[in-house]
Amino acid sequence: MTLKTAIVGCGSIAQHRHLVEYRNNEETDITAVCDIVEERAAIAGQIYDAKTYTDYEELFQKEEVDIVSICLPNHLHASVSIAALEAGAHVLCEKPMATSTEEAERMISAAEKNGKKLMIAHNQRFVKSHRKAREIVRSGELGKIYSFRTTFGHGGPEDWSVDGKDSWFFKKDEAFIGAMGDLGVHKADLIRYILGEEFTDVAGFVENNAKDGITVDDNAVCMLRSESGILGTLAASWAYNTAEDNSTVIYAEKGMLRIEDDPDYSLVASYTNGDVINFQLGQIQSNESGGQTNTGVIDHFVESVLNDEEPLIDGHEGKKSLEIILAALESGETGKIQSLKKG
């Protein structure tokens, strides 16, 4: 069975990841593309031999598609995802999945009501070093986990967004949240995945101190506490102007893991008994290194639809990661530690 596919939003993330990965997947056929900028939709349609639309509602009315990728500004994620689900399609939505817990819950309800899959595109779970780190933590060989630091920073989306310095990423009414929504939510999802724990408390310093003329954050540092008492920091930044940093370090009773933190090895495991194991698992893909054309996100989404299996990052998982950055934002505004509700 070939899945008829539509991509709504033909900006950078669609051009460099979704469209390319769907084309490379033998189980999918790119049927339609949509973008409010007619020229952008036309170019994508020509390259991928797809019908073009400037109105997603018209697309959903005229095309019977099996799956839809939502690659739009953050404030449109919920409404367009729900429209696609109501139209009978499975949905892969870019992160952060929504701009509020309420929006996320409506997306989850729409998926469940219509019997469709909803997946959030948190690609860091598919990186080999991250999967290996999770495996090591789960094995218990590190003993008790004490602490961590996880970071995602680069010079900002103006270098790769299709609209450059005029990008929606910098506008609060469209993006809602800046570096924390672009990068921080990835690390929130990742550290939940590696540790296999939820977080109970968040303290955040969320600032705009690097870029002029933007209305969202570009620098954030957060403290997190997990349900078992693991403490750690999460940093998200558009102010790392010399090189991208996408590293995570886990500190534990019997050793430590350095993930994407060494120039030669994607994972370094150091133990208190003196053992050091270097893993060459391939470097994490980045925008700087030529794009992310083999993230595993699209392949996993397609496989989950074909096999009628729940995707690794379903709506519930996406919501939990979203709630961490929402709490960080709230903490930054109020100066108070925010408690995360369980469930």
UniProtKB/TrEMBL annotation:
Pfam families: GFO_IDH_MocA, GFO_IDH_MocA_C3. Residues 130-258 form the GFO/IDH/MocA-like oxidoreductase domain. Residues 4-122 form the Gfo/Idh/MocA-like oxidoreductase N-terminal domain. SUPFAM superfamilies: Glyceraldehyde-3-phosphate dehydrogenase-like, C-terminal domain (SSF55347), NAD(P)-binding Rossmann-fold domains (SSF51735). Coiled coil: none annotated. PANTHER family: BILIVERDIN REDUCTASE A. This is Predicted dehydrogenase. It comes from Salimicrobium salexigens.
